Amino acid sequence: MTGRTTMTRVLYVGLDVSLEMTSICVVDAEGGMILETKAVSDPADIGEVLAGIDGTFERVGFEAGPLSQWLYNGLTSAGLPAVCIEARHAKAAMVARAQARRCE
Question: What's the superkingdom here (predicted)?
Fold first, then answer.
């Protein structure tokens, strides 16, 4: 052993879900773009895209909608840390984040 530690890349995923297709955006902890693509709006298809990315997923977030419960169940069953976000809460969090940055 050389005493080196292996750093696993921490990743965050945003899903923009529609009935047929889902836009997938993957960023690293520093906000750098890793992947931007689309997949069929099916947990298996989304999971297949994410399985091809090297790193540890911290969160897989998507907005509440008609497919959200089905997607949540499918993604969490595949071991992904899915979170369903209410649009109003997401907007409030983004506003608070922007205000905090202005105060820095």
Answer: Bacteria
32 within domain boundaries:
yes
C-alpha 42/C-alpha 27 separation (Å) is 21
Q: Which residues of the chain have pLDDT under 50?
A: 1
Model pLDDT, residue 1: 47
Q: Find out whether 19 and 66 touch, Cβ atoms under 8 Å.
A: yes
Quote the domain boundaries for residue 49.
10-103
CATH number of the domain within which 84 lies: 3.30.420.40
Q: How far apart are CA 37 and CA 4, in angstroms?
A: 34
Alpha-helix runs per DSSP H in the chain: 43-51, 68-77, 87-103
The reply to whether 41 falls in a domain is yes
DSSP class of residue 31? -
10 Å Cβ neighbour count for 12?
18
